[in-house]
Design goal:
The chain has one helix at 4-19, and strands at residues 24-37, 44-48, 51-60, 63-74, 77-96, 103-122, 125-141, 149-151, 156-168, 171-180, 188-190, 193-194, 202-212. It is mostly beta strands. The longest helix has 16 residues, at 4-19. The chain is built from 1 helix and 13 strands, in the order αβββββββββββββ.
């Protein structure tokens, strides 16, 4: 597994290489929002002491992000690393299989997202794609009210992003799709056993940046 240090090192080497040639560089502040498409169709079945419980995704909320963006343009080639604080939340339903009533619990996740995008630029339009690292910061969860619930998040997980962008003067507008390589909910632990849903989370991301040339 690639470490966070290695991830940054690759980006640094690319930036150093580009700095040796004539390039247009822009730096800015980025903010935006995202939809969380978990694609979850099946609930987790937790068995303990002869009783069965179901944990299911009730609703995935809109997320937000804010941070820094650096864009380096060399001819028609663009490299665009970013460092973004990202926050998302999900509502879960939890209840015993034999009992039709369930309770709703909200869990919030905060990550440091580090996309490293490469692409082509023609006029104001950009076509971008590349890897993204998610460095786990913290989580707050109402599921701790459930007996035996625990969390075991990985420090760093990976995914990819791809999309289009438009640069107008000092304004950058981006719309992207993000996929991930880890299954959703792989941090969930009940009675010492780790669970995960069968699908991998995805997001549709829209953002706006103001840059300094």
């Amino acid at each position: 597994m690639i470490s966070l240090r290695s991830y940054f090192s690759v980006g640094l080497l690319l930036l150093v290489g580009l700095s040796q040639v004539s390039a247009q560089i822009r730096f800015g502040i980025r903010v935006g929002g995202s939809t969380y498409d978990l694609g979850v169709s099946d609930a987790l079945k937790i068995t303990q002491g002869g009783n069965e419980f179901l944990l299911d995704v009730q609703d995935a909320k809109y997320g937000y992000h804010a941070g820094l963006v650096l864009q380096i343009k060399l001819a028609s080639f663009v490299i665009q690393p970013e460092v973004l604080f990202n926050s998302n939340s999900v509502d879960y339903s939890y209840g015993q299989v034999s009992n039709p009533s369930t309770s709703i619990f909200t869990e919030r996740y905060q990550n440091l997202d580090i996309p490293l995008l490469l692409g082509l630029k023609a006029g104001p339009m950009r076509l971008m794609a590349g890897p993204v690292g998610h460095y786990f910061l913290k989580s707050t969860s109402e599921l701790f009210e459930v007996e035996s619930y625990d969390q075991k998040f990985k420090d760093l997980t990976y995914g990819w992003q791809g999309g289009i962008g438009v640069d107008l003067l000092n304004v950058m507008i981006d719309v992207r799709y993000e996929g991930n390589f880890s299954k959703f909910g792989d941090h969930i632990t009940f009675y010492g056993q780790q669970y995960s849903f069968s699908s991998k989370p995805a997001r549709l991301i829209a953002s706006l940046a103001l840059t300094i040339k």
